[in-house]
Amino acid sequence: MTAMTEAIEVTIFRLVAGRTAADFVAANADIDEWLNRQPGFRSRRIAEMADGSIVDLLIWDSAADGTDAAERIMSEMGRSPVHAVIDQRSVAWRIAEVRQHTARTSSSMRDQPRTD
């Protein structure tokens, strides 16, 4: 049996002056559609750090899938409104194969407050 692989893509950047995380999320509608068509794409999370930096986290089946998409996004999605809200000079991008993954188990959920 072959082990399932996955990769994490992390991009951290600042927004252009006067733009908010909500502006960035709204400007991503076409990018989200594009991502959902990419081979190996699993999920995406967008977060804002206390200093205002944006963390864009993507999960891929493999680093090759994520790298392939990253190499094509500007040529395929260069007209997306999202590029106008990102301070391109601040972008730091990395992708790495996952070496270990821990998921919450049902036994760890017993400490959660009841909702019934």
Walk me through what this model shows:
It is built from three helices and four strands. Strand 2 and strand 3 form a beta hairpin. Strands 2-3-1-4 form a four-stranded antiparallel beta sheet. It is globular, with a radius of gyration of 17 Å. The longest helix has 15 residues, at 63-77. With 116 residues, the chain is an alpha+beta fold.
Helix and strand topology:
Elements: E1 7-13, H1 21-26, H2 29-36, E2 41-48, E3 54-60, H3 63-77, E4 92-97
Antiparallel strand pairs: 1-3, 1-4, 2-3
What attributes does this structure have?
116 residues, four-stranded antiparallel sheet, 3 helices, 4 strands, globular
Order of helices and strands: EHHEEHE
- Judged by helices, strands and strand pairing, the structural class is alpha+beta
> C-alpha Rg, in Å?
17 Å
* CA-based shape: globular
Number of helices: 3
Q: Give the uncertain stretches in residue-range form.
A: none
Helix content: 25-40%
> How big a fraction of the residues is strand?
15-25%
Count of β-strands: 4
Question: Going across the major beta sheet, what is the strand order?
Answer: 2-3-1-4
CA(first)-CA(last) distance: 41 Å
The largest β sheet comes out as:
4 strands, antiparallel
Please, what is the average pLDDT? 92
